[in-house]
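In this section we walk through a basic example: taking a raw amino acid sequence and producing a predicted 3D structure, encoded as discrete structure tokens. The instruction is simple. Fold the sequence below.
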Amino acid sequence: FYHYDVDKWLEERGSDPFKPIRKAAPRNEHWHHMYNGDVISMPDKWEYPWYAAWDLAFHVLALTLVDTDFGKQQLKLMLRERYLHPNGQIPAYEWNFGDVNPPVHAWSTIFTYRLDKAQGGEGDREWLKSCFQKLLLNFTWWVNRKDRFGKNVFEGGFLGLDNIGVFDRSAPLPTG
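The resulting token sequence is shown next.
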């Protein structure tokens, strides 16, 4: 079970979006809406307890082979109103929900649907429709992102494609 009330955590650190005078912005300041109170598949017991939505999209594939309903529930969790940002961004990971991860949830959703269909003969179209609706919000967020030059294209972000590099790609290099 993972519990994290982001609004409460931010309030304890002086972040209130409705106060004219505020302290320096802590991490996750733009995620006041987020409330985690769920069983969530974690990437690693060693660094437990934290989750990464990007990793979870891959965990779901293995989970679906063992427990289809739980796998689908885990994937849909990041698309719920308590997690998905109002602008459509899927939270990245606890340390910085606003960071950018590769858009793998749509792929994981269709893959999970096909696994479910192969196992049971029929896919859960209602689940697929509800995920699709939220994934459209996420897609809209992606296509409206601007790169550092103001162009409407995707840039690598912290993770780049599928690995963590030596440098945080969201920040300037220490050498300038």
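Looking at the output, two observations stand out. The longest strand covers residues 2-5. DSSP finds five helices and two strands in the chain. In the next section we compare this with other chains.
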